[in-house]
Design goal:
Number of strands: 12
CATH architecture of the largest domain: 4-Layer Sandwich
Largest sheet: 6 strands, mixed
Number of helices: 9
CATH class of the largest domain: Alpha Beta
Radius of gyration: 24 Å
Number of domains: 2
CATH superfamily of the largest domain: Metallo-dependent phosphatases
Distance between the termini: 44 Å
Length: 384
């Protein structure tokens, strides 16, 4: 995208965000002024505007400590903003439908407006409160697939995670639990399907501690990773150094044959934010052609962060492991991801001649540290 395009897109996003906040502020004041008659419009607008602006300020180069606090506040605010907007819009639709049906007088009485705004606020508090709590819970899911059998005929156990988003709000607080839960699975292999970082390596509060925890991962065949769209940018070299120090092998348009049992292929994401320092994703056919000298009987497993264009893989691949979608992370976005992706979550195989696809909802959160209608999860995969 050109510089002009990026500026135009940023201005457009700011306009939409600002307009949405004007709508929310007006609706909140219309309802609350009924309950608090002394609540004046101008002071309320300034107070609400300051809260809404905190999210925008989190993207400015503020001093470290201040930026950290503003970023955390902005992350929580975005979740509140999403549900305020959703439930106020629903309330307005309900009031409009009531007026058209003759159930509510026109213009809408202040007492009715107060009840509608009050209900929207209660739903926002309930959904965000639940989302904050639910995001602290980590679930484990298990899939089994038959790939024709690894070389020695014994099952292969893989622990899959994606979307750690280290540097995001509360991302580091659960890292110890994630490592412990993976180790209790006793996997043969641990794989990370991208978005290990959250755009900026400097956002990680304690990278030394995070690296120490990741080095505790235990797997007979080691820990491998592919990169996601948030694993690039100006701090890309620091990200790679961190992964190296954490004993995580990154596959960037590369493959490795492990113990003559299976082939593991790692892809670069097609849309990295800030780029991969000049590295680019290859054509899939060209990449797979490089496996010509590898025993075709060995199962081929691909780490590809974004589960889009699954048709690029055919019978030459046995299993694709992805993340990225978060399964929408927060209702009702999970309904949207179902429409956007051929598979946005779970275990899928189009037909017997197609590869198995497993998409995880991710073990962390992006943006808002909340989960509603989806889970943070670690995936255990047993291959036969």
């Amino acid at each position: 995208m050109s510089g002009f395009g990026m500026i135009f897109g940023l201005l457009g996003a700011l306009f939409v965000y600002g307009a949405a906040n004007v709508y929310i502020g007006r609706r909140l004041h219309q309802g609350l002024a009924r309950l608090f008659p002394s609540l004046r419009g101008r002071p309320f607008a300034w107070a609400y505007g300051a809260v809404a602006a905190a999210f925008v300020l989190s993207y400015f180069p503020l001093p470290g400590a201040i930026r950290g606090w503003v970023s955390v506040f902005g992350a929580y605010w975005m979740g509140i903003f999403v549900y305020l907007l959703l439930w106020l819009v629903v309330a307005d639709f309900a009031l409009t439908a009531g007026r058209l049906a003759g159930l509510i007088p026109s213009p809408t009485p202040g007492s009715v407006r107060l009840r509608a705004v009050g209900l929207a606020l209660l739903l926002t508090i309930g959904f965000t409160g639940y989302g904050i709590w639910h995001a602290t819970r980590i679930y484990e899911v298990r899939y089994e697939a038959k790939l024709g059998g690894p070389a020695n005929g014994t099952p292969l156990k893989i622990a899959l995670i994606s979307d750690l988003h280290l540097g995001a709000a509360r991302s580091e607080s659960r890292l110890g639990e994630i490592v412990g839960r993976i180790n209790r699975m006793e996997p043969d292999l641990v794989v990370m399907a991208g978005d290990i970082f959250n755009d900026d390596f400097r956002a990680i509060r304690n990278p030394g501690r995070a690296s120490e925890l990741l080095r505790r991962l235990e797997a007979g065949y080691g820990v491998y990773a592919s990169l996601g769209n948030h694993d690039g940018g100006s701090t890309f070299p620091q990200m790679l150094e961190f992964l190296k120090d954490s004993n995580i092998t990154v596959l960037m348009e590369e493959f490795t044959v492990i113990d003559n049992r299976f082939v593991l292929i790692g892809r670069l994401d097609p849309s990295p934010i800030g780029g991969y320092g000049g590295l680019e994703r290859q054509d899939t056919d060209a990449l797979l052609a490089g496996l010509a000298g590898v025993d075709p009987a060995l199962p081929r497993i691909v780490l590809d962060h974004t589960p889009s264009r699954l048709s690029q893989y055919g019978g030459e691949v046995d299993l694709i492991l992805s993340g990225h979608t978060h399964r929408g992370q927060m209702f009702p976005a999970n309904l949207i991801t179902r429409l956007l992706y051929e598979v946005d979550y779970g275990h899928y195989q189009k037909d017997p001649a197609s590869p198995h696809v497993i998409v995880t909802s991710g073990v962390g959160t992006w943006g808002m540290p909340m989960r509603v209608g989806t889970n943070c999860e670690i995936v255990e995969i047993v291959l036969h």
